[in-house]
Amino acid sequence: MDQDKKERHNERMQRKKAVVDAGIEKAQEVRGIFIVITGNGKGKSTSAFGTLFRALGHGHQVGVVQYIKGTQSSGEVLYLQQHTPNLRYHAMATGFTWNTQNWDADKKAADAAWEQSRLMLQDASLNLVVLDELTYMLKYNYLDAQDVLDAIRNRPPLQTVIITGRAASPELIELADTVSEIRDIKHAFQAGVKAQPGVDF
Ligand code: ATP
Ligand code: MG
Question: Residue 43: nearest ligand to its CA?
Fold first, then answer.
């Protein structure tokens, strides 16, 4: 790169740094946030668990409730259960599936999972609570939307909550501080690649 280009590059970077520094200076509030990770692309639950690993790295206590959970545990949960005492975990008992179609059993399991979630959302010792795939419980009316919103609103001020799942409702999005929508551009499964342990679960 010639000298002239380097100088222009440096000037651009300095201007950029000033904008970034001003942004950092402005953001001074310290509180827990509510994050929604939605959309049809792959990466919602893995994003939530990535954040959970960050929290654990800082010695935080974390809670996880997995809705719509099959009978097989995913790799991240198996790992966490073996390696950290700082995790509180609950999975929906029946492993809600699209093929059971048993409203009463699924509703009972959803209520039990929500009871655990509610307790976590009242527990100030938990820095982070992940409610994985909760959006479906609202979409199919297994849980009362108002109960969920109230519990999130009234949680301890320093607690961060992450909800994942497709089709997040407008109410969840409205209440959230941070919302990311993961877009499906392509997925190996569509090309016939089998879901793999360590990558997909
Ligand atoms: P991940 O757990 O990998 O972050 P996710 O939470 O975004 O995925 P879910 O709808 O919860 O997505 O689905 C979990 C499973 O479905 C994973 O095995 C994932 O690879 C697969 N999956 C996610 N998105 C897609 C997609 N767009 N097409 C096909 N399979 C998908
Ligand atoms: Mg998921």
Answer: 1
- To test the ligand 1 pocket, which listed residue (37, 42, 181) has its Cβ within 8 A of the most ligand atoms? 42
Indicate whether 190 belongs to any domain. Answer: no
Give yes or no for a contact between 48 and 130, defined as CB atoms under 8 angstroms apart.
yes
- Compute the distance from residue 11 Cα to the ligand 1 centre, in Å: 43
Distance of CA 99 to CAs 14, 65, 143, Å?
57, 22, 20
For position 132, which CATH number holds?
Answer: 3.40.50.300
Block mean pLDDT (10 aa), the chain, length 201: 89 91 88 98 97 97 90 87 94 68 85 97 98 95 97 98 98 98 97 94 92
CA 191 to chain centre: 27
Atom of ligand 1 nearest to the CA of 187: 28
- Ligand 1 cavity residues, CB under 6 Å: 40-46, 133, 164, 166, 184, 187, 189, 195, 200-201
- Whether 65 is covered by a domain: the verdict is yes
The candidate with the shortest Cα–Cα distance to 158, out of 124, 201, 113, is: 124
| 122 CA distance to ligand 2 middle (Å) | 24
Structure token digits, residue 8 = 């222009």
Whether residue 157 is contained in a domain is answered as yes
pTM: 0.91
